[in-house]
Amino acid sequence: MATFVLVPGAWKGSWAFEAVIPLLERAGHAVHALTLTGLRPDDDKETVATANLDTHADDVLRLLDRAHLTNVTLVGHSYAGMVITAAADRAGGRISRLVHLDAYVPRDGESCWSSTSEHFRGVFVAGAASTGYAVHPPGDGDPRRRPHPLGSFLQTVRLTGTLAQVPRREFVYCSGWEDRTPFAHLRARLEGDPDWQIHDVPTGHDAMHEAPETVAAVLLDEHVATESAHSKRQAREAGAE
């Protein structure tokens, strides 16, 4: 039995994984889905205003402590790639697998702000204009979305290097929004890194709702229609030998 900790991206809560959770549980695994500080329905203005990336990494670490979790598969969507990176670096070997689900993979000293595209920087600025501390969700979407703490987008991550001890690190690239994705350059960077496995899935960014079965299949190591880029590269290299 595996243990999954699922961390949602910006503006969302644990409900973001509502279609994936039963698929993992049905396969016999333990699943914990988080709602990060500042995104909870009862969080007050001060909580939202003071929450940052460290706060969110601590949310993950408190869950690990409270539930006595080890050998964890830590999954982060979008912004939460920042969170799971920071948390895994501080988790003392309790993370066995990292899955960045169309998510940022920061290096030491980077932030969500520095890692994203000009388009999304504009979204952050426009969304925070009314309060100065909370970024309102863009466009029309799930009414459960909440304003996201601006500080968490701006704070840089500080890494000690222990992240390299996580045995499995995977990046899921959602190719169905290639005209807007901020992750194309990241995918190219990680494809050349033998420590990372890349999966390409033909969905938009919100893969958990668009194709929950595909997301669950990746997490469960099942065959999915689109092979991982790592596997395809290995096959090409083997054919050239």
Give the distance, in angstroms, between the N- and C-terminal Cα atoms.
Answer: 38 Å
Number of domains: 1
Runs in which pLDDT lies below 50 for 5 or more consecutive residues are 225-241
Average pLDDT for all residues = 93
Biggest sheet statistics: 6 strands, parallel
Q: What assembly state would you assign to the polypeptide chains in this entry?
A: single chain
Report the CATH C-level class. Answer: Alpha Beta
- Reading the helices and strands in chain order gives EHEHHEHEHHEEHEHEHHH
**Radius of gyration over all CA atoms, rounded:** 17 Å
- The CATH H-level superfamily is Alpha/Beta hydrolase fold, catalytic domain
**Helix segment tally:** 11
Question: Roughly how much helix do the residues carry, as a percent range?
Answer: 25-40%
Write the CATH architecture name. 3-Layer(aba) Sandwich
The CATH topology is what?
Answer: Rossmann fold
Number of strands: 8
Shape annotation? globular
Amount of beta strand: 15-25%
